[in-house]
Specification:
Blueprint (H helix, E strand, L loop, with lengths): L1 E7 L4 H14 L4 E7 L5 H7 L5 E4 L4 E3 L4 H8 L1
Parallel strand pairs: 1-2
Antiparallel strand pairs: 1-3, 3-4
């Protein structure tokens, strides 16, 4: 099972789309999904991801900036 982290914030329509793409991937690929709101996390996360969200961090160290597709995710997970 792969563990992924979706960096997001409230009222972010792109983040909602990214989450739906991630759920589509999870139908075929076992995933443990963590969703992190950068505005409620440590301040360094907000500084790091503020202009990039949504960002998907994979357990292999790869980060995917939006826009990403289900195919992008599965190919990076291997």
């Amino acid at each position: 099972m792969h563990r992924v982290t979706l960096y997001t914030k409230l009222d972010c329509s792109l983040c909602d789309k990214a989450y739906r793409v991630l759920l589509d991937v999870a139908l075929d690929t076992p995933l443990e999904i963590d969703v992190v709101d950068i505005t409620h996390a440590q301040s360094d996360l907000e500084k790091q991801y503020r202009t990039r969200i949504p960002v998907l961090a994979l357990d292999n160290g790869v980060e995917l900036d939006w826009p990403f597709s289900a195919r992008d995710i599965t190919s990076q997970l291997g």
